[in-house]
Every structure is written in C-alpha cells, then in structure tokens.
Write a structure and sequence with these properties.
heterodimer, A: 214 residues, mainly alpha, 3 helical TM bundles of succinate and fumarate reductases, B: 244 residues, Ubiquitin-like (UB roll), 7 strands, binds iron/sulfur cluster, binds FE2/S2 (inorganic) cluster
C-alpha cells in the first residue's frame, strides 16, 4: 500500500487535487480584495475578521494550508526525481513541441512561494500573533504596502508568474486526474487561459488603482 | 549534398564520451539516415578507424531499435517517422547535424549511440501480458468488443518500444510507453481480468527504474513515431486510481 500511495502517479494525483483546491480559493480572496478599493476600511476589515473567526472557514483554512504544504512538498520531490532522471542533457538542445509553461512550473511555483512568505509575514503571521501588528486593520496595512514601489513591483511580478503557473496547472490537473475528454479538454484549456489571465489581472488592478490613485 | 556530422562517441558504459566531427560529402538526398551512417562507417573502416555503433534491425519502422537524437529531436525533425525511415532530403546542403544517444538515467549508454533499453523489457515483464493457456486460437467473435474500443486498443498496441518518448521528455518519463502498454489491454475484455495487478506492477517498476514523472508537457506525443496519444496517459492514470 505504501508503494501505491507514494508512487509518482499518486503524488501527481494529490498535487492535482490540492492544486485545484488552491485554485478555488483565489476568486474568494480576490473578491475580498476588491473591498480594498472602497474608501471605507469597514467592509474589508469585517470580511477579514469574518474569515479569521467563522468556524467553517477555520476548517477550510486548515485544509487550505495542508493542501499548500503537500502541493509544495510533492512538487519539489517530483522535480528532484525528474532532474535525476536525466543526468546528461542534449548538446543539440530540445526542440520538441511542448506545453511551454510546463517546463517552468518549479520556478513559477517558487516565485509564488516567495510571495506567500512575504504575504504571511505581512498578514497571516500577524493574525496568528507570530509577528507584531494590528490584526484589526489589514485595510491600512494593505494600502501602505501597495504604495511601496519595491513591494508593488514584486507583487505584480509574482502575480504574472502565478498566471503562467495557473495556465499549465489547470489543464494539466485534469489530465493527471484522468479526466480527459474529446469535447471538455479543449474547453478546460480555454477556461485555463481565461482564469490564468483574469485572476492575476484582478489582483494587479487593485494594486495599481491604490498605488496610483489613492 | 555535403554535411557536417557531430556524433557522440563513447567507448563503453564506463568511459567518458565526447562529440566528434565528421565531414560527409556527396550524401544523396534519397538515402535514409541510417544509410548515410552506413556510408560514414564504410569510410571510417577504410581509414582504419572505429565505425560508429548504432542500433538497428528492421529498417522499416517496426522494431523500434534505431533510436537516436538528431538535431534536438528523437528520430530527427520529421514527425511520425523512425530514424531508419528518416530521409536525408529533409536536411539542407551544408547543414551541421548533431547526433546523440537517448539521454536518461534508466537508459545508460552502452557504446556511441546505443543505449541499454532493457528497462522497458523489465516494465513489460512486470505486467505487460495476459495470462492465457496456449493452444488453439479461440473463436474471435465469441466475446463482442465495441469497434471504438478495439480501434483505440489497436492504436495503443502499435507502440514499438523505441524509447523516443523517454528521450523527448524533459523528465525522462516513460509514461507514454507504459500508457500504451496498459491501454492495449485495458480496453479489451481479456485484459480486464488482470488490469489492477498489471497497472500497479508496471507503474511500480517504472518508478523503481528511475524514470521521471509526467508533467503533461506533451513532448512524447509530439515525437512518438507511432503517434501514441496523450489520452492514453489519462487512461493509465484512471486505471491506476481504479487499482487502489
Ligand atoms: S510510445 Fe511511441 S515513442 Fe514511446 S516507445 Fe512507444 S512508439 Fe516509441
Ligand atoms: S530499425 Fe527497426 S524501427 Fe528503425
């Protein structure tokens, strides 16, 4: 049983499920972030408080963090195995036609991770009480951070890379789960494009609006 | 036409290899790639040098032994052909051609362009069969099979085990090969009986032999000389989950 749970296919299966769960969370977060555009900090801070206290969401949060950790762990484990599987490369390069962004998943993933670390230091750890700060007013924290040019640039760059990650991730996850269909697979690919552009764009628009106009 | 060949030379599994450059004059565009190498070897033998070792057998695209990595593509730049069927007319006069062995930990180089592909045999031995008693052939129509399934099983069964999928994959993954071998049985009633044990054993062997995992990159499908489709990998995944 151990062998079957830790086989390459099982790891990919778990990664795909965990990844899809993370994908579901993004629109929720984005919706809350749109409240940052209001001049009244109330709605955003209330939503943040609701997310931090409502019991169902607390369970959701535990699942989310576990999904994130397992997605990262298996991703790195598989990637190391994949590097080891080809000790000597090709002098003539690799010119095969491929799903281009699939080649950089570890790097686009890594940049998202770097962003998450930053994000956790600025918000999540404060909420957990690990870092000092006022957990009651994340609205002002966000507004302040968005106006620091270096932070804004890292933010935008990471979301662009997240988009590249999402594009391959979405179409790839269904194939990994064995869900392949003559009609639906092309539909999923189109959806993946739309999703991979729309979500990062949404986050970026919020930042740019606050950075430039507030 | 005149060509410049950059060929990987390696004495044996334990020695260091390197690229050697060989100018080739008067190559006929009608030659196959292997005939061109034959001509090179004839020249090398005449000069008292070691000929380039490469695998080949049928020279008609059905045995799967002639794999080599040519100018960034397994079996060369033309889709859906094996190296033995690759015509020289696809190359330009004066072109430099890089010729390398398959690169994968699971396929160690034995000599020059020859790699040890017995890892594929080991995967097959682990489960790529159905257990039936030998004897007279049973009546073919006694078990009805939907046309669609028999067609898909047939399309998977034409995999020749050449290893181009592994060579093309950035992870040296054998998923396309294994998926073809799984699919040819999974789609037919005779193959269902041992389906669970088969998929578990073959995947376990594949992992153990040091092939990478599948990133759904699709290089394998693009380079497979028998055009084995990625849908087979989705089927392999489904079969694997069913075997839990
Ligand atoms: S799947 Fe295609 S590339 Fe891979 S071994 Fe079979 S025929 Fe060769
Ligand atoms: S020599 Fe048999 S397939 Fe090329």
């Amino acid at each position: 049983m151990n062998k079957i749970l830790f086989s390459s296919i099982s790891k990919k299966f778990v990664m795909a499920l965990a990844g899809l769960f993370l994908v579901l969370f993004l629109p929720v977060h984005l919706t809350i972030n749109f409240m940052l555009l209001k001049s009244d900090p109330g709605p955003f801070n209330n939503a943040a408080r609701f997310m931090a206290t409502f019991p169902v969401i607390r369970i959701f949060e535990i699942v989310l963090i576990s999904a994130l950790l397992i997605h990262i762990t298996w991703g790195i484990t598989l990637q190391i195995g994949n590097w080891l599987a080809r000790p000597v490369g090709y002098a003539g390069g690799s010119k095969s036609e491929t799903a281009f962004f699939s080649k950089f998943m570890i790097w686009t993933g890594a940049s998202v991770l770097i962003f998450l670390v930053l994000h956790f230091i600025n918000f999540y750890f404060i909420r957990l009480g690990l870092v000092k700060g006022n957990p009651e007013d994340f609205y002002s924290v966000a507004h302040q951070l968005f106006k620091i040019p270096s932070y804004a640039i890292i933010y935008l760059a990471c979301f662009a890379l997240l988009g590249l990650h999402l594009y391959h991730a979405l179409s790839s996850a269904f194939q990994t789960l064995g869900l392949n269909h003559r009609i639906w697979t092309p539909v999923v690919k189109v959806f993946a494009w739309i999703y991979a552009v729309a979500i990062p764009l949404g986050f970026a628009i919020i930042l740019i609006t606050i950075w430039k106009f507030r | 036409m005149d060509l410049r060949l950059k060929i990987w030379r390696q004495k044996d599994a334990s020695s260091q290899g390197s690229f050697e450059t060989y100018p080739m004059e008067d190559v006929s565009p009608e030659m196959s790639f292997l005939e061109m190498l034959d001509a090179l070897n004839k020249k090398l033998v005449e000069q008292g040098k070691e000929p380039v070792a490469f695998d080949h057998d049928c020279r008609e695209g059905i045995c799967g032994s002639c794999g080599m990595y040519i100018n960034g593509h397994p079996h060369g730049p033309v889709p859906a052909v094996t190296t033995c069927l690759l015509s020289m007319r696809y190359f330009r006069d004066g072109e430099t051609i890089w010729i390398e062995p398959w690169r994968a930990r699971a396929f160690p180089v034995i000599r020059d362009l020859i790699v040890d592909r017995s890892a594929f045999d080991k995967i097959q031995t682990a489960g790529g069969f159905i257990s039936v008693n030998t004897g007279g052939a049973p009546e073919a129509n006694s078990i009805p099979v939907p046309k669609k399934d028999s067609d898909n099983a047939f399309d998977a069964s034409i995999c020749i085990g050449c290893g181009a999928c592994v060579a093309a994959c950035k992870n040296s993954s054998a998923m396309l090969f294994v998926s073809a071998k799984i699919s040819q049985f999974a789609l037919l009633p005779q193959g269902r009986i041992e389906a669970k044990e088969r998929v578990r054993a073959m995947v376990e062997k594949m992992d153990e032999l040091g092939f990478g995992s599948c990133s759904n990159t699709g290089a394998c499908e693009a380079e497979c000389p028998k055009q084995i489709r990625l849908t087979n990998i989705a089927r392999l995944n489904r079969e694997y989950y069913k075997a839990f």
